[in-house]
Write a structure and sequence with these properties.
By secondary structure, this protein is mainly α. It has 14 helices and no strands.
């Protein structure tokens, strides 16, 4: 039974503010809008709006985490480490969590009105909330369905792209489908890597099946094949966007860095010691972080370049003699 005087920190842990870092993917939506619609215009108002757009998303994300922990508590109880979380360990009161969840949702949409975000942003925020419901709540509960769990969870990536995009531009400006799909497949790659790490971390098929129903279907081979598939689809859609949109042509020079980052991710996911780590640690590898920063810096520099180096080097067109 939960302690009546459970410290506030136990409730905050269930909100997972440390996972708000995932909302940094919203910045990708900002960059897409900035490059394709705003013509690289930058001022104080845009920067403030971009920063404010992170707040409602973080609140809704925390509401989804609360729902996740409430509904997953019986399954977390059989996990080697998650059994120590607030609900299965009896550290918190579930009724208080329901109220906290409602408060976060109301607060998020109230801030949308206060910040005067357009309906495109608000619709994306609603999708983020709906995504948590579809992923966690029976009878749909896509979390329990092999491969659909990854597709559903990684759909948060395009949602975050839309949040960043529509925070800065009007809904009549639609982001390119190739970029949306690339971002979705990138998320699917990360989520499949997380499943792979977690599957190996538990190390017992019967235990993993009780913890997560989708693990009754997964195998190490199927997860590796899924990772390869998502990596290829990500690169395919990214290549289309780089070739089709002149403003993005220079990013073909970033592609080798993207490939190196994907290889580093695969290498880390498949190391023996990785299987003994918490799955979230998979995304904290210093080499992955390093190549992500390098790739991001190169992307911004090439977007701002005044010349189309890709065409000058005849990478995207025939060589004229």
């Amino acid at each position: 039974m939960a302690n009546k005087t459970a410290p506030v920190i136990e409730y905050l842990k269930i909100c997972r503010p440390d996972h708000w870092l995932k909302n940094i993917f919203i910045l990708f939506g900002h960059v897409v809008a900035w490059a394709l619609v705003l013509d690289f215009r930058l001022d104080g108002g845009l920067v403030i709006t971009a920063l404010l757009s992170l707040i409602p998303a973080c609140l809704v994300a925390s509401a989804n985490y609360i729902l996740n922990e409430i509904l997953d508590a019986p399954f977390d109880a059989v996990h080697p480490t998650k059994r120590l979380r607030g609900i299965p360990a009896g550290k918190v009161k579930v009724p208080y969590l329901w109220w906290l969840m409602v408060g976060l949702i109301v607060g998020a949409f109230a801030l949308c009105a206060l910040f005067k975000f357009n309906w495109g942003y608000q619709a994306a925020l609603g999708l983020l909330l709906l995504s948590g419901l579809v992923y966690n709540v029976p009878p749909i509960r896509l979390k329990d369905r092999a491969f659909m769990d990854v597709i559903a969870e990684s759909f948060n990536n395009p949602i975050r792209l839309w949040l960043g995009y529509y925070a800065l531009v009007q809904p009549n400006q639609v982001p390119p489908l190739s970029i949306v799909l690339a971002w979705w497949f990138f998320g699917a790659l990360l989520m499949t890597g997380k499943r792979y790490s977690e599957f190996r971390f538990i190390g017992d098929v019967s235990v993993s099946g009780r913890y997560r129903k989708s693990f009754q279907v997964y195998t190490e081979k199927s997860l590796v094949l899924a990772m390869i598939t998502y990596a290829n689809l990500f690169c395919f859609c990214t290549g289309i966007a780089m070739a089709v949109y002149p403003r993005l042509n220079n990013l073909v020079f970033v592609f080798p860095m993207i490939v190196i980052a994907v290889i580093a991710y695969f290498h880390h996911a498949m190391k023996e010691e990785t299987a003994r780590l918490e799955p979230e640690q998979l995304l904290k590898n210093p080499w992955i972080a390093f190549w992500t920063i390098v790739t991001g810096a190169a992307t911004i520099a090439l977007l701002l370049a005044k010349s189309n180096y890709a065409k000058a080097a005849h990478l995207l067109g025939p060589l004229q003699w």
